[in-house]
Design goal:
five-stranded antiparallel beta sheet, Vanillyl-alcohol Oxidase, Chain A, domain 3, alpha+beta, single chain, 3 domains, Uridine Diphospho-n-acetylenolpyruvylglucosamine Reductase, domain 2, Uridine Diphospho-n-acetylenolpyruvylglucosamine Reductase, domain 3, 35% helix
Length: 476
């Protein structure tokens, strides 16, 4: 059934929406303009989000299948959505589309302690999953900055990483199998429910990171690991940014295996203090936050490797602790970087473009030098934080949205950062995804042979091109 007062047909067509509504859960379909508008975009700036004609709030696999069968039969674009916390426009509406939101499919279906797996629906929030499996002495390591608000389905759609992935890997390393609905409504189970399996092509891996362009995730079985112990935590303070980033390459080259290795530049330290009074050294050029898993009797040796690398690169101070309260406070401060940025942006014109360039670790120092030069030349505030152990940098460009010239300058700076990343052997996105925001840059990163493969796969899986069009693969 549809909500009262809603359109019975898609505008400009003879397509009868009641036909779809009759196949869905009660109240799942809406064409109320206000409801649609509220669901038409994620957190990205400069991405169109107009023209959706209906919203389906799916409550079951059957709702997803019926929506895609209907859309396939009538060649209607479908935009899969979850929590809409992304920042690349991947969940944004396109003209004439049905928004297919699966955030209400949020059940944790089963924890298998013997196999160390958990079976979930796509709408489960990452932190809720972590809390749930902790009761069984298990852990789900993927830990994006949006851990408290992003869904597992969205994490899989963008192959999200986060703070702990330097040692424990990213989302794809924990997806054992997944069930997806294809463009015509067909259900497909990808991967195996066993720890090993090489029967056929790795279609599971193909769909991870595909951003809703190949199918809609409705269930996943995720690998878990034993609960992580309280970490050893250290910080190193540097007079400048380059020294901190040079330490990262030096430390990792020594064979270190930190659980977490985060970089925070001096401008971000000042913003964090202004946001939450964290007492960080805002006069420093940069800070590294490192966590390592404890090994009995080896705490001093583990920390000495980090200390020596930092001091070789001119650290002003290095300190470490095995007190869980210290660890928690430092990680909490690091997680507040984005809220601190939002506060700064609100006080300085409202604009922030958060980039996501991943680099070889040895290239990060030069990358920062070039970003700093861009900051000086543009006159814009540009900050950098990084999951430094992975080379995954997050530069932010701040600007006044009421100033067209400054806005245009910010867009050029954002693009220049991606250009610098590619020139240094990096990639335009390490974990945020391509979406609409970076679709033209994906075409610049891929070679012609790889583009042909992308086009062929998309055509084979979604021959009518209805799944999340105008986004990731549009320029390929």
């Amino acid at each position: 059934m549809t909500e009262t007062g809603m359109l019975e047909r898609l505008p400009g067509t003879s397509v009868d929406l009641q036909e779809l509504a009759a196949q869905l859960s009660e109240g799942a379909l809406s064409t109320d303009p206000g409801v649609i508008e509220a669901h038409s975009k994620d957190e990205a700036l400069f991405c169109p989000a107009e023209g959706a004609t209906a919203l389906v709030r799916a409550r079951s696999v059957a709702d997803v299948q019926e929506t895609l069968r209907f859309a396939h039969a009538h060649r209607i674009p479908v935009v899969p959505q979850g929590a809409r916390t992304g920042i690349s426009g991947g969940a944004n509406a396109v003209p004439g589309s049905i928004l297919l939101n699966v955030s209400s499919m949020d059940r944790i279906l089963e924890v298998n302690q013997a196999e160390r797996t958990v079976r979930v629906e796509p709408g489960v929030i990452n932190q809720d999953l972590k809390n749930h499996v902790a009761q069984f002495g298990l852990s789900y390591p993927p830990d994006p900055g949006s851990v408290a608000i992003s869904s597992i389905g969205g994490n899989i759609a963008t192959n999200a990483g986060g703070l702990c992935c330097v040692k424990y890997g990213v989302t794809k390393d924990y997806v054992r199998s997944m069930t997806v609905v294809l463009a015509d409504g067909t259900l497909a189970h990808l991967g195996t429910d066993t720890a090993k399996g090489v029967a056929g092509l790795d279609l599971r891996g193909l769909f991870i990171g595909s951003e809703g362009t190949l199918g809609v995730l409705v269930e996943a079985t995720l690998r878990l690991i034993p609960a992580l112990g309280e970490p050893l935590t250290a910080i190193a303070i540097f007079a400048d940014e380059r020294s901190g980033l040079a330490t990262v390459a030096d430390y990792m080259a020594a064979g270190a295996t930190p659980r977490m290795l985060e970089f925070v530049d001096g401008k971000t330290l000042a913003m964090l203090n202004a946001f939450g009074g964290f007492g960080l050294d805002e006069n420093a050029g940069s800070m590294l936050l490192m966590q390592a898993d404890p090994v009995p009797g080896q705490a001093e040796a583990i920390m000495s490797v980090f200390t020596e690398a930092a001091e070789r690169n001119g650290a002003i101070d290095v300190a470490y602790s095995d007190d869980p309260a210290d660890s928690e406070a430092l990680v909490a401060a690091r997680r507040m970087a984005q809220p601190a940025y939002e506060k700064y942006a609100q006080e300085h014109g409202g604009g922030q473009l958060l980039d996501d360039v991943c680099l070889p670790r040895t290239a990060m120092a030069e990358f920062y030098d070039r970003v700093a030069q861009l900051r000086d030349e543009s006159g814009l505030m540009i900050t950098v934080i990084a999951h430094a152990g992975d080379g995954n940098t997050h530069p932010s460009v701040f600007f006044d949205t009421a100033d067209p010239q400054e806005t245009a300058k910010a867009e050029r700076a954002f693009a220049k950062i991606m250009e610098i990343g590619l020139e240094l052997g990096g990639t335009i996105t390490g974990e945020h995804g391509v979406g609409y925001l970076k679709r033209d840059w994906l075409a610049k990163e891929l070679d012609e042979g790889t583009k042909q493969l992308h086009r062929a796969i998309k055509s084979a899986v979604d021959p009518q091109g209805i799944l999340n069009p105008e986004k990731m693969l549009a320029a390929v």
